[in-house]
Design a protein that fits this description.
Layout: H1 7-18, E1 30-35, H2 36-48, E2 57-60, E3 67-70, H3 74-88, E4 93-97, H4 102-110, H5 113-116, E5 126-130, E6 139-145, H6 147-152, H7 157-165, E7 168-176
Parallel strand pairs: 1-2, 3-7, 4-5, 4-6, 6-7
Amino acid sequence: QSSWPVPEESERARAAALGDKQVHAFHLSTNYRNSAEIYEFAAAYAERVGLHADLPNAVRSTGIKPREIVDPDLESTTRRLVGEMTGAVAGTVGIVVPVARRSEARAWLASWPEVAAMADGEDARVVVLTGLDTKGLEFDGIVVVEPREIEAESPAGRATLYVVYTRATQQMVTVSQHA
């Protein structure tokens, strides 16, 4: 899941940092985080864009497949989806947006009284993040806004989007203005 644009460079830096210390490599063959439905979506994306990722097997199922929604009104659609998701999952919901849309999405969130209270404070239940912000995190649900823009943000955008797709444990929806 490396989002470094030049993998060989990160491998050289890791080797230099480790020096003569013994290196231990592990193959993670089982995915416990994502539902099988979400991981099937993420794995299909990885294969479609040529990431050559070492894909583990997801072992739990929710019966809820990720949805891909196209609607020119991003704000209203995202608002509706976040409302649905906060009603459907007990925990956290991430709104993942391209860097250029972060301020816009935070403004949306602040203007939604039914959700704004859930997005306040350090124990916020609803958060707005960029693709790179999601690394190492997990959410019960994720709404991914304009995934193609996240993909286009950097040379490692495809790897970043794959990471985004693997952050949800229960539900995931993508929303785009154009097909």
